[in-house]
Amino acid sequence: MLLSMRVPRGFALLALALSSSHAFAAEPTLCKADELVVFSCSTGARIASVCASKDISKTGGFLQYRFGRTDGVELAFPDPGAKPADVFTSGTLMFSGGGGAWLRFGKAPFSYTVFTAIGKWGRAGSPADVAGVAVAKDGKEFANFPCRKASATASELGPDFFEKLGLKASDSADDFEIPDAFFPK
Q1: Count of CB atoms within 10 A of residue 100's CB?
Q2: Is 181 exposed, middle or buried (CB count within 10 Å of its CB: 0-12, 13-18, 19+)?
Q3: Measured between alpha carbons, how far apart are the two ends of the chain, in Å?
Q4: What is the pLDDT of residues 6-17, one digit of tens each?
Q5: Other CB atoms closer than 10 Å to residue 123's CB: what's the count?
Q6: How far, CA to CA in Å, does 43 sit from each of 1, 49, 97, 130?
Q7: What is the pLDDT of residues 130-153, one digit of tens each?
Q8: pTM metric for this prediction
Q9: Within 10 A of 121 (CB to CB), how many other CB atoms are there?
Q10: Fewer CB within 10 Å, N- or C-terminus of the chain?
Q11: How far from 37 is each of 4, 44, 66, 88, CA to CA, in Å?
């Protein structure tokens, strides 16, 4: 015997939201709830995030890169109190059919470049997103941490954000070239 039951609409919507919440889950971040997520993505076993105070500007606030897991940050740069314009440089990338933006800092002998870009790198020249962290040691490619889902990467990187912080723009158009490890195979 089949029984019919009327379920209140609000309850049905709540049950649907709870059962499918994983489908709408945001990308992981190492930023705190009271911080602005400037960049964040999963690189597999680790998370790369750039976090800022909500009051970030040319004259105040903080900007910090964090790398690690949700249960522990392995690298945080810079130390609290550093003025973003003193430790970060920025730039934009231009490609046929796309472009990107990057943010760089250094902790000798390493330099870290966080970036997002879109270009015709997909199948048959279709648009594809790439994003992640490129690490150089003494100016040479050292390690690459591609975002697992570049199209889902949280990012505020770009000229407007860079200008808001008064970040130094790169003097050279060739200052950052995306390493081959980030492109679809």
Answers
A1: 22
A2: middle
A3: 56
A4: 433 333 332 323
A5: 7
A6: 52, 10, 26, 12
A7: 999 999 999 999 999 999 987 788
A8: 0.82
A9: 19
A10: N
A11: 47, 19, 11, 16
